[in-house]
Amino acid sequence: MLRIRLIGSPRIEGPNGQRREVRGKKPWALLARVLLTDRALTRRELSAELFPEAADPMGSLRWCLASLRKTIGSDEVLTGDPIRRELPDWVNVDVHDVQAGVVDTRHIGELLEGCRSTVWTGVLHVAARCPPTGVVPPCGSAA
Question: How are beta strands 2-5 and 91-93 bridged, if at all?
Fold first, then answer.
């Protein structure tokens, strides 16, 4: 089972608990944005939200998506336009566990702990308008 941890310090853990590297912070914001939204998002929406200052926002989005696919270990995830957000059964996401009520929410941390950028804090705040019960809002957002 691959575990995606968005609560606390973000990380992806392989079946044996080994961490899989995700380079940079924007891929984490992208992954959280896609997984926390209640609807499929288009590539244009995501590139405008996450890469407003980039010379090539769509190229930056493609790079992040490819990086996440490689880290997850599947070319079948995070594809299409709008981006498909379904994950295989062998992938577990902590935020989904919280939403399903299968974890104790009394002692969990904030979403993407340590990510302190106004761009993705705003994006994640939009994505988490109705945060799962017990999840502390993203850093820098108003509670």
Answer: parallel
Q: 6 by DSSP, 3-state: which? A: coil
Phi, psi for 111 (deg, rounded to 5): -65, 130
Spatial distance between the Cα atoms of 131 and 138, rounded to a whole number of angstroms? 10
Spatial strand order of the sheet with 2-5 comes to 19-20, 11-13, 2-5, 91-93
pTM of the prediction?
Answer: 0.81
- Across 82-143, the runs of DSSP E, i.e. the strands, are 91-93
Residues in the chain, overall count: 143
Nearest 5°: the CA angle 119, 111, 98 is 140
Taking alpha carbons only, the member of 111, 118, 105, 117 closest to residue 138 is 111
Picking from 139, 135, 109, 108, the residue whose alpha carbon sits closest to that of residue 124 is 139
Tens digits of per-residue pLDDT, 121-133? 555 555 555 444 4
Residue 91 per-residue DSSP state: E
Instruction: Give the C-alpha separation, 97 to 117, whole Å.
Output: 26
The 10s digit of each residue's pLDDT in 97-119 is 988 888 877 777 888 887 766 55
